[in-house]
Amino acid sequence: MSDLEAMKAEVKKLSARAMQARMDLHDLSEELPVGLENVMATASRVCESYAALAAKKAEMKALESAS
Questions:
Q1: How far apart are CA 25 and CA 22, in angstroms?
Q2: Which of 35, 37, 39, 49 could make an SS bond with 21 (beta carbons 3.0 to 4.6 A apart)?
Q3: Residue partners of 46: CB distance under 8 A and separation at least 6
Q4: For residue 56, which of 19, 13, 27 has the smallest C-alpha distance?
Q5: Cα dihedral angle (21, 24, 26, 27), rounded to 10 degrees?
Q6: Could you read off the pLDDT tens digit of each residue along the chain, which spans 67 residues?
Q7: What are phi and psi of 35, to 5 degrees?
Q8: For the whole model, what pTM was predicted?
Q9: Domain layout of the chain by residue ranges
């Protein structure tokens, strides 16, 4: 597997994680005020997931440009 293919697979995996975190936050928001104590932790997970995804996409774009 080439570096680019591995990077695309990693982006796909990170994207799925980010979407799941977003859906978890959405589901949590629908049940408020139940679960209020979990909102900040879940929101942090969403932010971290999307930051990791953005960083990996930038890395992949740089690798594509270098090729």
A1: 5
A2: 49
A3: 18, 21, 22, 24, 25
A4: 13
A5: 170
A6: 689 999 999 999 999 999 999 999 999 999 999 999 999 999 999 999 999 999 999 999 998 998 7
A7: 85, 10
A8: 0.89
A9: 1-31
